[in-house]
User: Which sequence fits this backbone?
């Protein structure tokens, strides 16, 4: 299925690699103007060029998503594409450990970047009666001994998604989330673990009924669906995309 986003303006936070990149490219393939932000300028430019190759307006801006001023500057610049129809809050600080640093990274990026980008984009989303898609994780669906900070903040994003949906429905804005399972892509965490921690890599692989890690494109398809008119009566929900990983 090809989604038609012709004329739409889409912002993807954390859009230069992995799931965010695939989401940005999916919207571009559907005809949307797309703006992305992340910290790495080289990766941003490479993805911006891929977006532009679809023949749509493409904007990229380096931003530290732990910094409120950077987020607000990015949203303001991106809105010059003509507004905001869709905001995708995809960035993660990947603060895994139960340490001060791990918690702070997770709270600053996974949580507060979502809050701050949503606030900054809200006037434009209200005008467009647009939608928000937040990226959480299956880690947020239950406790985690291995990654307690990451799991806790992803649970917070799930809850916040529902709160946003309830609050913004009066403005015609839908808010949903995607909860990916373990996703493997070049340069990503699970590709790295395949070499650095093959025991963990194999244990997680064995927990996935389909016998493989997911791809960023498979998660992007879910995000595109939730942002499309086909999901026009869906709000406040978290869609799990994990190949059945949570079943085991």
Assistant:
């Amino acid at each position: 299925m090809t989604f038609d986003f012709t004329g739409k303006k889409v912002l993807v936070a954390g859009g230069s690699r992995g799931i965010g990149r695939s989401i940005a490219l999916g919207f571009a393939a559907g005809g949307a103007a797309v703006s992305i932000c992340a910290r790495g300028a080289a990766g941003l430019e490479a993805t911006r060029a891929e977006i532009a190759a679809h023949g749509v307006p493409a904007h990229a801006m380096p931003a530290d998503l732990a910094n409120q001023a950077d987020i607000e500057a990015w949203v303001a610049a991106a809105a010059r594409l003509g507004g905001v129809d869709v905001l995708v809050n995809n960035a993660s600080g990947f603060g895994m450990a139960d340490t001060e640093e791990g918690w702070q990274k997770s709270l600053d990026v996974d949580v507060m970047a979502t809050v701050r980008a949503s606030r900054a984009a809200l006037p434009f989303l209200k005008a467009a009666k647009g939608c928000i898609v937040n990226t959480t994780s299956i880690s947020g669906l239950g406790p985690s001994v291995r990654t307690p900070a990451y799991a806790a903040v992803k649970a917070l994003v799930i809850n916040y998604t529902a709160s946003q949906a309830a609050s913004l429905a009066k403005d015609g804005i839908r808010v949903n989330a995607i909860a990916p399972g373990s996703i493997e892509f070049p340069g990503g965490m699970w590709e790295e673990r395949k070499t650095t921690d093959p025991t963990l890599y194999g244990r997680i692989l064995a927990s996935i009924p389909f016998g493989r890690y997911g791809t960023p494109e498979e998660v992007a398809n879910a995000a595109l669906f939730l942002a499309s008119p086909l999901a026009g009566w869906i709000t406040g929900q978290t869609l799990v995309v994990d190949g059945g990983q949570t079943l085991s």
Notes: The longest strand covers residues 174-180.
